[in-house]
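lol so apparently i was supposed to do this last week
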Amino acid sequence: MNIRHHLDDATLLAFAAGSLSEGMSLLVASHIDRCTDCQTRLQQAEAVGGALLEELAPVALAPGALEQVLALLDTDAGKPEARPAAPAPVQYADIPAPLAPYLKKSLDELDWRTLVPGVRQFDLRLGGPGATRLLRIAPGLSVPHHGHRGNEMTLILRGSYSDELGRFQAGDVADLDEQISHQPISDSGEDCICLIATDAPLRFSGLMGRLVQPFIGL
Amino acid sequence: MATVIPLFRKAPPVKEEWSACLAALGQTRDRADYARLFEHFAPRVKAYLVRLGMTPANADELAQEALLSVWRKAHMFDPAKANASTWIFRLARNLCIDRMRREKLQFYDIDIDYDAPDPDERHGGEQAILATRMAESIRALPEAQAQVLYLSYYEGRSHSEIAQAIGIPLGSVKSRLRLGFDKLKQLWGESS
Ligand SMILES: [Zn+2]
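anyway here it is w/ zinc ion bound
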């Protein structure tokens, strides 16, 4: 896969630290699944975590903690784990492995809801402060111009879009924060389908944006 | 409102001997080796969990669970791919996320040794030495950068929460993280 747009280092660090929301972690895992560049940077970010673990001042466990665990080692609870089987081959080429359990269907079989003509969404309903959803944009259409109060990440699953930052194709990720305001336009012959995760509501600008906001609720 | 955090105590650098000890445990299942690993790592894992917001009792229980996993997975540890502290950090972090979310997302397991041939064998090799150097490097970071790294990893704070806690814009949190990370990689690169 020819990936041109990658995750921000700050995002990889947050992922490694375990401090991203579920939706954002899902998106990050879905990009990393197919990106060796970000896999390497994630290993570096996890090494930061390992180094910091050594730096922490230890906090003693309750007395007897070691003995309790030692007593379990020869029981079923202490049995060595089998090496995991190699991951099953992907069922749908345009759904990254980490995302598959959340959808359980092909992209075309999902229960898409129309937001405005040409723009449909599928909400993963993960809860939390932000939102995690798939957006499906017909060729030539755009999402209203918007900025962000927090972070917004977009992973392209199918098709492509262009905005002020460049052209994004399948596998590419747009990792944006509050400093960036943009207006993506679906720019290939097929629908652009992307996974979008936010950690705070988006801010739409312009009349169209304000009209659409209550429906999109992004 | 600035939170004052004791950044780093004066600690010796990460010791490679723990990686050797963990690798040996995978082969021999020696209980004395295991007890040594437990006594070194369990109190650190507990400290980590407490900082993430767990009560001491829950942190005790989860630290025990994490260290039991160390025993159960030790044969899958490959010292060429990761340092013992990085491997155990990841294990504890994943347990913690599972516990807090009880959801279906699996953390991306980068060092897993699948039964199938590794398509990219060359990848992990240099990572093992990385953590050792990293510990030394983190002490060399400007405090502002070390602080955001620390808050991110050891208080499990999101970028927005860090921005609020130390009273700087979200963009600055992210640029400090980037700078700190770059510096760490650079320091490591220069000393190799
Ligand atoms: Zn990438």
